[in-house]
């Protein structure tokens, strides 16, 4: 292999220009964030801030991690809310790669960077890679999930191209640089802990691996592939090691959460309810089969469930013809109407990869080497089939029931993230192939014409025959009851489909025209790249702006959202150490209450399963005894006349009970909460806690009081004339909570299905509970060791590669 000296203009300047261009694009799209100090009212981020408030306050006050919070669902581990792992250094790498840009801006910037790395690793020029990066980054889903507040999902997706870059580079070119890049990419992908997106990436990698093994066997290079695969395996272990603390605690908690196996049995069957999520819940957001057309035509199904219209819309005209004043009609159509009429319950917008990307993807089927087409097309098809969810029952229910880990994930429509990686990738390979080998590709003009005919033809047919669709939505009945002009709304849905079909057709024809002129030597390769890049950017940018534009950004979003209400102010006058509040209007889909109070409810996608059982069976039925045992002192009513009510009979932080009611199964234990006196009786599953032998306890003159409170530490003082049994209004979680009596470890057990209990001796004593899970300590230690090793390995691999110049395997013989 010939070595050439470093040339700044050739080897560095194009990449620096690319970074500058990406910064400019990011700044242009997110100028309100970067230059006006505005933010988005991202639902999930606001809920996160509410749920994480107690954890963050403790961290700021002590410099330590709480690891537990009592601010949501009575109490739960903080692992999946907001826990720092000091041993994991990957966050510093992310900050460096994003220039520490604020969220939103940083998300898109790093997506551009990672996509660029993938395409440069393939051997593409910086200019073509820049065009490809735009195609990857500005796919509508990347923007829409930011509007919703799915920031960690966005970042996990962003690093998928870097993982693929390292994988491909290690197998086809420089093993050591590729393995280092793979390790860093996977480390950062795992760092943001959105395992569903990592799972989809793993499926794509498996498909890629199967194709590589087939080709290696066919060409006699299986030994070399295995050697390189072994190095990549070590790199993957290092990446997992850096994130081990986060993964280990997540895995431990998952077994106890709604993602784990239920201890309850199916009614009338005696069989345990399966592990993982409920199937109906998991498949609730399933992409419609016809809805797949949004990959090519964005508003094929109306776009958003809350879309704005203008004065040219049929809905506006219908309102004005009904006598509604023009200003009011304009306000109605701009406040957001359910233009989406697809099968999902609602949506913030479609998954649109771009008309030009779809056109080039189809072209790639004809001209790109089968080795690439096979796994990229297979990944795309799998992505679409998974996203169809319940609309393709036979396949997806099988996956849900039998494929390892798949039943832990919900909102299966997000499986289209695979397609938003594979489709631009194949599209750019097709463009690269055309630009490099136009003379060598047989019947290229014909294949170009066929690709235009397929994609443009679909758009043309939709444009011509859009009126044959029903445009009926599940939301229409409510609109009719509210006396909205439903025929006009349906006409606007048709108009959106028709106009976007024509729009996509125009972009396809323009892009094909550019390539045709290049083939006829009317344009240079550089001009063709620039023209296609501009068209791609205009296409995607304009669609993205429908769902996230400057008007969506606001000043002081967090401050305004967390202004205490009169109800909050009344409750905050109570200075007791610990009590709980329930927000009756929206208890289990709101963490705003958790910002100010310890909440019975909250907002989280992985609650403790036992707590969810109590919600489903008792709290949702307003079981007063359950409210009492959860020390629910206040209820926020939502009624302006009486915004706060005192819940009668809250039992406090702990209390002595008179008797134990033994049960012999989780089903009996949960059912026993229906008719019992929480202040006098403790329900105990004696099959799990046989040591609770005594059934009756005297409570005369026995008192107990919480004297010190921290999220991960509780201290009680009690006095009793005789041995007794105390129930604590704290959630039972054995993997980390340890009880102490006068400083000595003692056992405690579960009572009332979700609470802690303890048999205590007579006299005056101190009880402490400390949350110090071994999983966190062990995981963080392994993360630290792995971080050091990863840094050494990456530096060593780069140094070795530069010095040794290992033999390369050409990345492509033909593309």
UniProtKB/TrEMBL annotation:
What superkingdom does the record give? Answer: Bacteria
Signal peptide, first to last residue: none
Which residue ranges does UniProt annotate as crossing the membrane? 12-30, 92-119, 126-146, 152-170, 175-192, 198-217, 229-248, 349-367, 372-389, 409-435, 447-466, 501-519, 526-543, 782-802
Q: What keywords are assigned to this protein?
A: Membrane, Transmembrane, Transmembrane helix
Give a Pfam family name: YfhO
Enumerate the InterPro entries for this protein. Uncharacterised_YfhO
Q: Per its record, how is this protein called by name?
A: YfhO family protein
User: Which organism encodes this protein?
Assistant: Pontibacter saemangeumensis
